[in-house]
Amino acid sequence: MNYKKIVKFINRTLAASAMLLAVSALSACSDDDDTPVIPDTDVNKYGVFVVCEGNYGASNSSLTWANMEENSYLNEIFYKANDVTLGSQAQSMTTHDDDGWVVVSDSHVIFKIDLDTYKEEGRIVGLTKPRYMHFVSDTKAYVTLMNSNQIAVVNPESYSITGYIDIPDLYGAGDAAMMVQDGNYVYVNCWSYQNKIIRIDTTTDKVDASLEVGVQPKEMVMDRNKNLWVVTDGGGWEQNPAGFETPAIVKVNTSSFTIDKKFELTMYANVGSIAINGEGDRIYYTCNDIYSMSINDNALPAEPIIEADPENAYRYYGLGVDPTTGLVYVADAKDFTQNGEVKVYDNNGNLKKKFDTGICPRFFCWYYKK
To answer: Using CA atoms, how far apart are residues 190 and 75, in angstroms rounded to an integer?
Structure first.
């Protein structure tokens, strides 16, 4: 059974208790009672926001802030500052200037928050299942959408949808995901039931090229040489209409927009997360265990730096690397029903620290303000 089906199975079988979990999460939002607590403003702050999905069908997504300078963390920061939850299935977060943008897929909303007070400053609505947001300029951003053959173009200053970019030749409903930019081009991996990366010309807001990289390219990063590193999950199950093959790490040369290298991973493994260090010369990926390799390597590493839980390899739900320290952050969803935690390791796999999060932590967003 593939990772996606396992998560759906867990969520569906626990649907009857989802609302109780949501109520419990809300009642635990402050230490003493349900009165929102607005965090103190940090003049100097460096750390990471952890986006926690919550349970499927329950409005218990949350946001954790971990301050690396003070070695402290605070859960439920959006609720504590605004007296409302994020909603259902928070997907990702990005920062632009001193604002954060939290994308909540099943609630069809993107919240703009002040990164000092965590107070909501505005929201973008009218999008169907938004996934990731990428700023092209102060007045233009792209938003990928689940189960859609389009990418939305929005004006963040007016919180308005200004247009859509059509994605050609996708299977079924389509599913664009992450975005990275180099110059005038934004690259987007198309994941569920898809097999390609597309390239968008930001001067025209149109797709001008596509590249087949393998079945279900799930996540990607860009290295210091402007090459893309893409992890494909291979489809995950034999009946996948998009195909079924061995998962892989694929290196894409963006200058020629061709595949430079392809490294096969392990069939049926928990594959999907990929991250890169601040120098852009070392990638990290999940294949049950967590591995690290140089962007110049010609073969996959033989040994992991962090071993998975032998009883539940799927609990490692997200992966990130601190761009300043190089420490490796692992989002541990545990059993996908209780609060999770983040474990922080050095490059030798030594556990340095850990901190609690909300339910199903999955996405890291780094922030540094002087």
So the answer is: 32
